[in-house]
Design brief:
Number of strands: 47
Bound molecules: zinc ion
Number of helices: 4
Largest sheet: 12 strands, antiparallel
Radius of gyration: 27 Å
Distance between the termini: 68 Å
Strand content: 35-45%
Structural class: mainly beta
Shape: flat
Number of domains: 4
Length: 585
């Protein structure tokens, strides 16, 4: 039944995530004088270190009075080091390197200043692409302190008009908490304490993995100036922890600032028992390579089920976050009873705390599902699932918690293979893992280079992953669990003009618009030419259409009379379409 394959040989990776300790940043947070990025009052919609989907938020989300178009200014003199333009993510964004060792970043912009705009356009023109993410330090575009750099907007994956503002240490690219800088702390006042909403207790194994089904959430109440949990009575954990398990805690704590109701994140927390502090969390900076370990820091089951972002105060080997000055939050079940204290500070130093008591009257042995080790894949080892026609390979650290081996094969005719379901799409994976599906017998002229793997979520959403054909198998990678099926994409995208056709008079047009649709692997690259000169064409994400602006940059390519408009598009499997229209100007 099981076979050994050569692809197992490249499991030479190892994780040393847990070796990464807490490091204080050597930056003069108290005395550095930085200008604000806008001249309107700075009110936050989100802060640094807030828990978001798969990441901690890496900047400040600053309100822009609900509208686009606020002036943005460089916080210090510097050189434009990187520019980005995309319908997704940061949208329009500028990075500026400053002589003080910091890089500032302004994202979701509406437009750039004329100097930055012409730099961006020259990159776009060189690469013949609207989407750019380019290091431009060597072009030497200097900006002065408080120089206008563009307008705030709502571009990229932003949901509402705001400025996403980040500060990074230039040499390491670690993102810093802007509110650690006193110059910004003074401008964004806060005297509101963090809010403690609840405490969750867990049975945890010796490595800090949560024992399935053995946890309980207790709401906290604020009564007469003090927080109470379980109405002030001791929490009896005897139905939760037992033989071979440890007690762990998670805290549902958020911060609010004075000027708005938006929920933000806390900065520094402490868990102590008696006089001793066992666990400390302090979020001063984030290393991007570890940011996805948010899924290990929080209890993602609690988030999926109850939309609560809780901070676990215990840590597994698969958690490289540099945010724990102390990480000893596992309390042996035999002596976990006692008095505990939890303290949470926001970055301005406002404090919320709670005292609570744990008792453990239990002696009975509750079953621990994790003891049935054959039922689980463990995150801190290499794992393989090997069948005759379906295989998965996980490096160490590919997921966060022991993963139940849920596997099912459905024999249907809907796809080129059976449907192989592994685990649940709601469970996050940390790293891409290898997926292999055996191909059926294929005709001689079959386009094997265009085979891929479809990953279908529990809700039926399909994402297509391009594959590589090797000896009767298709290999690809995925970072999502769900249903895996074999597919082929040999169909090019389709170009559908919206406001022009062959022979159309476009003299009064300010844009030409079209749709580009792809059946499976998705539109990857797209280009437009007027009389064989490249012209900018962008994707309007909100209106789901492609737009060629007819402006001062593209118009010089138009001639009186007939003009040739050529558009091409490529999907992720390399299927290409190109069409030419004649329009009249
Ligand atoms: Zn943001």
């Amino acid at each position: 039944m099981t076979k050994q394959f050569s692809f197992l040989l490249f499991i030479l990776f190892s994780i040393s995530a847990s070796a990464q300790g807490y490091v204080e940043k050597d930056i003069d947070f108290d005395n550095m004088d930085l200008a604000p990025p806008m001249k309107i009052p700075l009110i936050l919609a989100g802060n640094f270190g807030e828990m978001r989907s798969n990441h901690f938020h890496t900047g400040l989300d600053i309100k822009t009075k609900g509208v686009e178009g606020q002036n943005l200014y460089s916080i210090e003199e510097g050189v434009v080091s990187r520019v980005r333009v995309s319908p997704w993510g940061y949208g329009l964004a500028v990075y500026i390197d400053h002589p003080n060792g910091l890089t500032s970043l302004y994202a979701h912009m509406k437009s750039f200043s004329p100097a930055i705009d012409s730099l961006v356009y020259s990159v776009q023109k060189e690469k013949e692409t609207y989407v750019v993410d380019e290091n431009v330090l060597d072009r030497g575009l200097k900006v002065k302190r408080e120089e206008f750099i563009g307008l705030s907007g709502n571009s990229g994956s932003s949901m509402a008009a705001h400025l996403h503002f980040e500060l990074r240490e230039t040499k390491t690219e670690h993102v810093l908490n802007p509110l650690k800088f006193k110059c910004y702390q003074r401008k964004i006042k806060d005297s509101t304490k963090p809010t403690l909403k609840g405490i969750k207790v867990y049975a945890v194994n010796e490595k800090g993995y949560m024992v399935p089904g053995r946890s309980k959430y207790y709401h906290c109440k604020y009564v007469n100036g003090k927080y109470l949990v379980n109405n002030g009575a001791p929490i009896d954990v005897s139905g939760i922890v037992t033989d071979n398990s440890y007690l762990g805690f998670a805290f549902h704590v958020v911060d609010k600032l004075d000027a708005a109701h938006n929920i933000c994140g806390v900065h520094n927390t402490f868990l102590s028992k008696g006089d001793e502090t066992f666990h400390e969390q302090k979020i001063d900076y984030i290393d991007f390579s570890y940011n996805r370990y948010l899924n290990s820091h929080q209890d993602y089951y609690e988030f999926k089920q109850n939309k609560r972002n809780v901070h676990k105060n215990f840590k597994t080997p698969v958690n490289g976050l540099p945010i724990y000055p102390k990480a000893n939050g596992l309390f042996d079940w035999t002596n976990c009873a006692g008095n505990y204290k939890f303290k949470a500070f926001d970055v301005h130093g406002n404090l919320t705390s709670i005292n609570f008591t744990i008792k453990n009257t239990g002696t009975s042995s509750l079953s621990n599902p994790l003891d049935e080790t054959q039922n689980y894949f463990y995150p801190d080892s290499v794992n393989t699932l090997i069948y005759d026609d379906f295989q998965l390979l996980f490096e160490e650290g590919s997921f966060y918690e022991p993963l139940e081996r849920i596997f099912r094969i459905d024999s249907t005719n809907r796809y080129m293979s059976h449907e192989f379901t592994f685990s649940e799409s709601e469970i996050p994976a940390n790293k891409y893992f290898d997926v292999r599906l055996k191909t059926p017998k294929l005709p001689d002229n079959f386009p094997i280079s265009k085979l891929g793997i479809g990953v279908i979520s529990d809700k039926g959403y399909l994402s297509y992953r391009s594959g590589q054909y090797v000896d009767g198998w298709v290999e690809s990678t995925s970072r999502s669990f769900g249903k895996f099926v074999l597919m082929v994409d040999s169909v090019p995208p389709v170009l559908k003009p919206l406001d022009f056709i062959e022979g159309k008079v476009i003299s009064k047009y300010r844009t030409m618009e079209l749709k580009i649709e792809d059946n499976l692997s998705g539109v990857w690259k797209y280009r437009a030419y007027i009389n064989d000169e490249w012209c900018l064409m962008y994707y309007n994400r909100k209106k789901k259409k492609y737009v060629i602006p007819l402006d001062k940059r593209s118009k010089p390519n138009l001639v009186k009379g007939e003009n040739k408009v050529r558009i091409n598009a490529l999907d992720s499997e390399g299927n290409k379409v190109e069409k030419i229209w004649t329009v009249v100007y």
